[in-house]
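The records we work with from here on pair a chain with its fold. These numbers are not coordinates but entries in a learned vocabulary of local backbone shapes. To see the layout at work, look at the sequence and tokens printed below:
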Amino acid sequence: MAQRILLGTVKKFDKASSLAAVELAEELAVGDHIRVEKDGKGFEQKVADLRLQSINVRRGFSGNAVEIKLNMPADEGSSVYKMV
């Protein structure tokens, strides 16, 4: 089983754009594999679209408030993990 590193929690999810706002506790880059989970249910995906202040970026760092485009809807308060 892959190791999980907690990146943060979903502060807001915009259904129209499928963007989840997350304040990062660890570094995250386009191409990283993440898991979004709440109450034992969740999904995994590769990060394809990462934004910082509405600008596409390749990498976000600890303390950055980023938006991650998700393949499925996520509830506010969902945990976001980097799978390594």
